[in-house]
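Consortium newsletter contribution from the modelling node. Members have asked for a concrete example of what our holo predictions look like. Here is one, prepared for the 3-(4-hydroxy-phenyl)pyruvic acid complex that several groups have been discussing at recent meetings.
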Amino acid sequence: MKNVLLIGVGLIGGSIALTIKNEHEAVIAGYDVQAANCETAVKLGVIDRVSYDLQRDAANADLIIIATPVEATLNIMDQLSSIKPAIKALVMDVGSTKNTIMKKAETLAENGIVFIGGHPMAGSHKTGVESARPHLLENAFYILTPSSITSAAKIEEAKDWLKGTHAKFIVAEPDEHDFLTGIVSHFPHLIASSLVRLAQKHASDNPLVQQLAAGGFRDITRIASSSPKMWSDIVSQNKEHLLSLLNEWKEEMDQVISFVENGDQNQLFDYFNGAKLFRDGLPIRSKGAIQPFSDLYVDILDTAGALSKVTTLLAESQISIINITILEVREGLNGVLRLSFQNDTDRDNAQQLLHQENYLTHITE
Ligand SMILES: NC(=O)C1=CN([C@@H]2O[C@H](COP(=O)(O)OP(=O)(O)OC[C@H]3O[C@@H](n4cnc5c(N)ncnc54)[C@H](O)[C@@H]3O)[C@@H](O)[C@H]2O)C=CC1
Ligand SMILES: O=C(O)C(=O)Cc1ccc(O)cc1
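And here is the predicted structure:
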């Protein structure tokens, strides 16, 4: 039986823990600044026990996964490198940035600790272990950044630990990683938040802004609902690439301003058409990965057949459920079901139907 220590028991750490449980004989201990997150994770079966002693559990571990926001990751790496004798575990992280973390990894390497940076390129705007799913990273790219003392065998060991994610592994240099993720993930996040801030400014003068922003606007700005802590850490660690992209974007916007000022239909058409052609040619991910999930929480009585009543009701209305989890974490209630749907429309239809049948439901963001 192997020992795994998960530091940061949230969405990504929890999802990876679930995949390790599926594939390996391992006891997973969880450590989190908020111990309540670990207790929830134990109740949900995501980890086996709470770690109250980081140093001792790190010393005994075969694998350590750091799944905290990236600034905290640096602190934890400092703590790990100060443990004596040096920890023998393979250490990995899941952070969205790699340059700063891999520089810190060199200090671990000096202490004989093998660190492999990792970034699963999938997830959700949701946070917390309650949203963890074993299929979250399926078919997603998972970028690995080895440190100077990482052997090929250690990279294979890392992939073996993570095989239950069913992700596609790629090895990259940290700076290349930060440049690429800057373009496809970090910069779009800044823009999504800026679109929301713009709408917010106008919403105070005109309440219709908020109502009309419920459609397409909501879709293209979904990622602005992600964790502000996680994203402020990412932006400060990928500052150089993001500043360069922001300046490029300013030039892009100046060009758009001139197209709009000139009112030249051909220029505008070419601009939109160029974007459409490139976007239409982007690969479509098959399953899992960056799909957000739409969850509905349903309070149910602890009686025989309670679950099948709910599922039958939805099946009769042709609403498909992609995942069901039985939670018993709310005090004073007999049970709570978490139903996951492919999209918000299915979730809203399910909620309406269940309300008609007097079920208490909640949508948690
Ligand atoms: N959310 C996403 O879609 C993705 C996130 N990531 C990266 O994964 C990491 C974790 O993100 P999520 O799981 O989404 O966040 P989360 O908020 O769901 O989980 C983070 C957990 O770390 C804990 N934590 C914070 N500081 C800590 C510390 N000093 N010591 C111990 N625990 C601490 C928090 O209490 C929380 O439970 C971040 O570095 C993020 O950049 C990577 C890919 C996708
Ligand atoms: O919610 C989404 O669509 C995401 O893009 C999630 C995400 C957030 C951070 C990452 O580093 C990778 C993926």
